Amino acid sequence: MFGYEPEGWRLEQAENRAALRTPAALAQAARAGQILESRAILCDSEHNLVVNLGCMQGIIPREEGAMGIREGTVRDIALLSRVNRPVCFYITGFSEENGHTTALLSRRAAQEACWRDYLSKLIPGDVLDARITHLEPFGAFVDIGCGIVALMPIDAISVSRIEHPRQRFTTGMDIRAVVRSIEGRRITLSQRELLGTWEENAAHFHSGETVGGIVRSIEPYGIFVELTPNLAGLAECRESVTTGQQASVYIKSILPARMKVKLVIIDTFDLKSKPEPPHYYFTGDHMDHFLYSPPESSKIIETVFTKEEN
């Protein structure tokens, strides 16, 4: 990753903390061209970010706050929203005024280096570390390096359908993601290909067992109950069941050829639970192809990652 982690990752790293300890260490980090990270404590009336460096204050001028601010393609909310959060930066210099030293910082320069040396070299199918920054009904926004954000659409989060990304993620959660497409500097991500095939998920369950699940969808012909993020079963209709409820379900049968799990709902109840960190079946750094459906099934569900021009 060339050291271009999502913002917040390097905050407590020993190398980062050592560089912030003294003015001399900061000066050495500036000479070495080291990307550092600390917390923004204020955004002033001119939208400059003030950063607490421990041994002194730093300032990120507005136009150095993010790629696109100078060009007007990124709104200033991207700066205001960094207050009380970690920001990465290069030290570009120091200024003296009234006996006080202030470090001059550039977050934009760190982002440009991240794009040039890391993100611009990605191709569809590459798998990377990321951190959830915020959630919208249509998808999750994800920091993929130095505060550069990519979108993971809601339909790419899992095979089992959800109503909102908050059913899978919390802000600040660290995840793995696969690059689905690249258009210019817009990177779109997916996660469903990392969460296992139908076979891999179904292997955890057996006919005759009663297991836990989550009611995800109620249709005229039955109720879909999620057993894992990449596996749902269908139960017969039952009164007083609502989406989002926890469920105890009896597994009647598992049918790989039809890619179906038949269930009977034993009981449902209301319980709000925090999303668990994802479990990933794929642990490599690149995939060309993902086949979800089992060999016995005539229905093919797959993803083919095709290299595109940036």
SS-based class? mainly beta
List low-confidence stretches.
none
Termini separation: 19 Å
Largest sheet: 5 strands, mixed, barrel
- Helical run tally: 5
Assigned CATH superfamily of the largest domain: Nucleic acid-binding proteins
- What order do the SSEs take from the amino end to the carboxyl end, as H and E? HHEEEHEEHEEEEEHEEEEEEE
CATH architect. name of the largest domain: Beta Barrel
Task: List its salient traits.
five-stranded mixed β-barrel, OB fold (Dihydrolipoamide Acetyltransferase, E2P), S1 RNA-binding domain-containing protein, 39% strand, 3 domains, 310 residues, five-stranded antiparallel sheet, elongated, mainly beta, structural constituent of ribosome
What does this structure look like?
This protein is mostly beta strands and 310 residues long. The protein folds into 3 domains: 14-116, Nucleic acid-binding proteins (OB fold (Dihydrolipoamide Acetyltransferase, E2P), Beta Barrel), CATH 2.40.50.140; 122-195, Beta Barrel (OB fold (Dihydrolipoamide Acetyltransferase, E2P)), CATH 2.40.50.140; 198-269, Nucleic acid-binding proteins (OB fold (Dihydrolipoamide Acetyltransferase, E2P), Beta Barrel). The protein is built from 5 helices and 17 strands. The chain has a 5-stranded mixed barrel with strand order 1-2-3-5-4. It is elongated and about 75 Å long. One of its GO terms (molecular function) is structural constituent of ribosome. This is S1 RNA-binding domain-containing protein. Keywords: Ribonucleoprotein, Ribosomal protein. Pfam families: S1.
